[in-house]
Structure formats: structure tokens, C-alpha cells
């Protein structure tokens, strides 16, 4: 199904239209909240600070928050505390037996883990809000030395902690509502909306660099063609599959013969999607952001070593992406379960014995695919370093942001098509029953 036909079919389905409208309304609420500033902040001094630090870690954190950190709005922390809490509990599920048992209890167990994740999000938000408020009290604008915080003290700190934590909790609720009642993954769409909202500013900055002579006019079309090629590569890898042939044995049920069909098991090259770069970015931003606000010598030295674009930061970022590619794939895809389900349904891979041998064969293919996927994701995500440090490109239009935008768009379009197919299938069954009754 093409994109145009999918949109046309969506326009003809009232239920799907309501879901899409609900999604847009929730994203509009999120973007409106980004414009509401936290009390007690000198907006002009903060804007001057971010203008000077646009190409640092603060600029990247600002991109993920959709400009909320630059405005120091009520959504300044964004959704990152929730993502960090999700990472912690996904890791603990593998290590802690009680959480592992909860995860295997079905929907009730998953609800309990989600509840723990929400509580952890609140705790992380309070901690980050405290450190950020303390750090802001000692910061001033680069020109004029105007203090960013108007009235420093515990009143400002407590108010900032409460405001930022409430904002993150509200974003978390918005994401869950989009996932349940809208179209697509709510958390991913919130990050997607934040990145897309920064696109006009990025285009304007590029235009300003061309007019001032910082970037040559000849280089601009080369950059556009390069970005188009990168988008094409991302689309190719995000939709690429390794199809393992499946043969179903013939079985006699009563007097009729069933089975004997051929099918395939689709295995994506990038099974983990955009989760690894989001998780890796969240982890890398959390300690570095806190270190950026605390003026202690040894913390400043560590922060300098982990500064965005440094060799150590890039190496750790790539290492975390590779780790989460394998970790998330292992959590979401179990070759043993797949092999057992095939065996129960009379399916087998031609030339491979059912059971353990099938699981080992699928696992070997998944490892190879994950290696390719991890290399691809890592290569795309280090593009901002090359574009900014080497080619002096003034925005994060590449790497992690581009991968998230394209990946979330593909996933959302797929869900729209799934709703369309499901609706058409339900309509077909209803019409079939009506004809049968007649």
C-alpha cells in the first residue's frame, strides 16, 4: 500500500480520522506547553546563553526537548527522565528475578512495571530539576553578565523542581494517551514533534550562514543531496528484511488434509528501531548535563572529556548504541519461543531440524543482522559530529535526529495502514455474515 493510498483510505474511515485528529491535538498541546516559561528566569539572558552554546551538549538536549530547554519552559526536561527510567527497568528485568517474574505475568505484570517506571520518572525528574536549578543560579549571559535566575534561593529551587517534574509527568501522560487512543507510539511521536519543530530554525540558520559567507552557495545543494541520500539509506535499512522460508507439514484433520503451505519469517535488519540511539543519547546527556551545572574541578574535567563531539564521547556513544541494539533485540525477540511455536504449528525451515536446531539457526541469523544493524545505526548517529565539527553545518539535521524522524514516520505510517487493513477486514467479515444470514 502506497503512502498516498494509505492517506486516502484513512480519510474514508471515521474511527481512524478520530485517532489521527486526537494525535495531532495532543501534539499541539505539547507544543503549546513548550512556550510556557518556568517562573523566576531571565529569558533574554537564557536565550543569549543558548545562542553561544548552540553546538554543545546543551544544543543537543535542547533539540530533544523541542526547544523547551532554551525557553526553560515547564517541559524543559522533556521526556528523557521517562526514557531513562525505562532503560533502568528494562535492565533490571534481566537482572532482578522478581521483576523478571513480573514481566512474564502478562498484562498485569507489565502494568506493575509501568507503574514502577512512572514513580522512577518522578524521582529522576526531581533530582534533575534540583541540579539544574542550582546550576542556573550561578550562570549568567555571555554578554552583559546578566544573571539567568532573577531571585536565587530555595524558593526558586523547590518551585523549579515541582514545575519541571509536573511537566515531565504531563508529557508522560500525553505519550500514553497517544499510544492508547491515537496513532503511533506516543513517546516517539513527542520526540519526533520536538525535532520537526526545530527544522524552520535550522533552515533559517543555514540561510543566514550562506548570506554572511560562512557557507558557500555551491556547498548548499551538495548538502541537500547528501541529506537526501542519507534519508534513502535510512528508509532502505529500516524496511529491509531477511525472509527465512517456512514450510508447513501436511496434516489430516478428520477427512480433510491441511497444511503444506509455504510462508516466510521476516527478520528486520534493524529490529530495535530508533530505541538504541534514544536510550544512548539519554544516558550520555544525563551525567554530562548535571556536570555542566556543577562547578567542581574534577567534575568539570570529566565533563570536558565527555563533551559532545570528543573522541571519548563518540566512542562511548557508539558503544552504547551497539549494546542497546543487541539488548533490545534480545528482549523483544526470542528464537527459542519462535522455534517452539513453529514446531507446535507443524512449521519448519527446509533443511533445518525443528526445535533446538531451528532456534540456533534463527539466533545465528539474528546476530548477523543485528551486527549489520548496529553498524548502520552507529554510522548514521555520528553524522552530526562530522557535519558540525568538520563541515561547520549549524544544525543537528542528521544522525540521531534524522534516524528518529524517518523511523518514527515509517512506524506511524505502518500503523495507519494496519488500522486501514484491519477496518477493511472487519467490514468484509460483517458483510459476509450479513449475506450468510440472508
Protein traits:
Preprotein translocase SecY subunit, disordered C terminus, 2 domains, three-stranded antiparallel β-sheet, two-stranded antiparallel sheet, mainly alpha, 438 residues
Structure summarized in a few sentences:
It contains 19 helices and five strands. It is mostly helical and 438 residues long. The strands form two sheets. It has a three-stranded antiparallel beta sheet, with helices on both faces. Strands 2-3 form a two-stranded antiparallel ribbon.
Write the layout of secondary structure elements.
Layout: H1 3-11, H2 14-34, H3 43-52, H4 57-64, H5 68-71, H6 80-95, H7 97-103, H8 107-137, H9 154-181, H10 186-197, H11 199-212, H12 219-239, E1 241-248, E2 251-253, E3 256-258, E4 262-268, H13 275-293, H14 297-305, H15 311-332, H16 335-344, E5 347-348, H17 356-381, H18 383-390, H19 399-437
Antiparallel strand pairs: 1-4, 1-5, 2-3
Describe what this molecule looks like in 3D:
- This protein has 438 residues and is mainly alpha-helical.
- It folds into two domains: 1-197, SecY subunit domain (Preprotein translocase SecY subunit); 214-397, Preprotein translocase SecY subunit (Orthogonal Bundle), CATH 1.10.3370.
- The chain has 19 helices and five strands.
- It has helices spanning 3-11, 14-34, 43-52, 57-64, 68-71, 80-95, 97-103, 107-137, 154-181, 186-197, 199-212, 219-239, 275-293, 297-305, 311-332, 335-344, 356-381, 383-390, 399-437, and strands at 241-248, 251-253, 256-258, 262-268, 347-348.
- The strands form two sheets. Strands 4-1-5 form a three-stranded antiparallel β-sheet, sandwiched between helices.
- A hairpin with a 2-residue loop joins strand 2 (251-253) and strand 3.
- Helix 1 crosses helix 19 (399-437), helix 7 packs across helix 8 (107-137) and helix 15 (311-332) packs antiparallel against helix 17 (356-381).
- The radius of gyration is 25 Å and the shape is globular.
- The two termini are 33 Å apart.
